[in-house]
Amino acid sequence: MRFPGEGGSGEDLPEDANALAGGLLPSGGWAEGFRSGFACVVGRPNAGKSTLTNALVGEKVAITSGRPQTTRRAIRGIVHREDGQIVLVDTPGLHRPRTLLGQRLNDLVRETLSDVDVVVFCLPADQKVGPGDRHIAREISHLRAPIVVAATKADAVSKERLMEHLMDIDRMEGLTIADIVPVSAVRGEQIDVLTEVVLGHLPEGPPLYPEGELTDEPEQVMIAELIREAALEGVRDELPHSLAVVVEEMIEREPTAADKHAQRQPLLNVHVNVYVERDSQKAIIIGKGGSRLREVGTQSRKGIEALLGRRVYLDLHVRVAKDWQRDPKQLGRLGF
Ligand SMILES: Nc1nc2c(ncn2[C@@H]2O[C@H](COP(=O)(O)OP(=O)(O)OP(=O)(O)O)[C@@H](O)[C@H]2O)c(=O)[nH]1
C-alpha cells in the first residue's frame, strides 16, 4: 500500500486514504524515514524532569515545583515533529524506597522503563554526580534501550563547571551512554538538539498518536495534579508527601438562560477531595478562615479551565486519611 507523498502523483489513491489508515496519517502521509517511539525521562528527585518534559512538548503537561517527588504518575507528553514523534513518559523520581508508597512508585518506574525505546537520564549541572544518580545508573544500565544523558539546568552554572560536569558524566562507571546533551529547560536552550538526538534513537514507523495531541493522561489525573501543585505552593517541607488529590466526580450543570442566550457550555461542577495525613496538616491547607484553600481553588481553577476549555465550578474538600502512605488499603483507594 502506498500513501500520499510517498512518490508518484498520488492520483491513483482513493480520497479517503487517510481514513483507510485509521485516521492516523497527518495530511500528506508521513515522510520517508519518519521515526516514532517512547522515551522515558528519569533522574533523581528535583533533577528537572518535569520542566524538561514540558519544554520538549512545548506545553504544560507535567506539574513542576521546587520540591522533590511532586510527580507521582507516568504522564505522557507527545512531541510532534515533521520527521517524527516522541511519546514522553515522565516518571516519579527513582529513589530508595522508605515507605510503601515509595516502593510502589519504584515498581511503576521499572515497569515503564522496560518498555521504552530511549531513556533520557537527567543529571543536573548544579549538583555533583552523587550516590543517588549512581543508584539510578545501576537501575538503568541493564536496559536494552539506549541512554541519552541530559545535563539539565546548564544555565545555573558557569561554563567551567558545566565542562567539569560533562566530564564527570562521561567517566561514570558501568553505564553505556549513547549521547550527552547539556540543556536548559527554563531558557529553552538545546531543547531542539535533545529532541533531534532522541528522535535519532527511535525506530522508523508511523505516528503513534494523531497530530495535535499532547498527552493521553486522563483529564481527571491532570486536574488532580493541577490542584496538588497549587496546594503545595509555599507550604512547609513535610507536607508534599502527605498530600493526595482525588477528583471524585465531574457533573455538567443544567444550562441557565444566560448560557443559552450566549450559546455557551454550562458550568462543569468538579468535586475534589484533598487528603492529608494529620489534622495539623488539614489546618495548614485550609488556612485562616479558609483563606489558603480559597487561593488554591482560584489558582488551580484557572489551569483547569484552560485544560478543559470551559468554565468550571471547583468544589474542594480537605479530608484526613491517617498515615495513608503506609496503609495498603488507603493507597489503593487513593489510586496508587
Ligand atoms: N535554573 C534552572 N532550574 C531548573 C531547570 N529545570 C528545572 N529547574 C528547577 O528545578 C526544580 C525541579 O524541577 P522539576 O522539573 O520539578 O524536577 P523533577 O525532576 O521533575 O522533580 P520530581 O518531580 O521531584 O522528581 C524546579 O525548581 C525547577 O524550576 C533549568 O533548566 N534551569
From TrEMBL:
GO terms for molecular function: GTP binding; GTPase activity; ribosomal small subunit binding; small ribosomal subunit rRNA binding. GO terms for biological process: ribosomal small subunit assembly. Residues 69-73 are annotated as: G2. It is found in: Cytoplasm; Cell membrane. Residues 43-50 are annotated as: G1. Residues 183-185 are annotated as: G5. Residues 235-322 form the KH type-2 domain. Keywords: Cell membrane, Cytoplasm, GTP-binding, Membrane, Nucleotide-binding, Ribosome biogenesis, RNA-binding, rRNA-binding. Residues 152-155 are annotated as: G4. The keyword rRNA-binding applies. Residues 35-204 form the Era-type G domain. GO terms for cellular component: cytosol; plasma membrane. Residues 90-93 are annotated as: G3. An essential GTPase that binds both GDP and GTP, with rapid nucleotide exchange. Plays a role in 16S rRNA processing and 30S ribosomal subunit biogenesis and possibly also in cell cycle regulation and energy metabolism. NCBIfam families: era, PRK00089.1, small_GTP. Belongs to the TRAFAC class TrmE-Era-EngA-EngB-Septin-like GTPase superfamily. Era GTPase family. Monomer. This is GTPase Era. It comes from Bogoriella caseilytica.
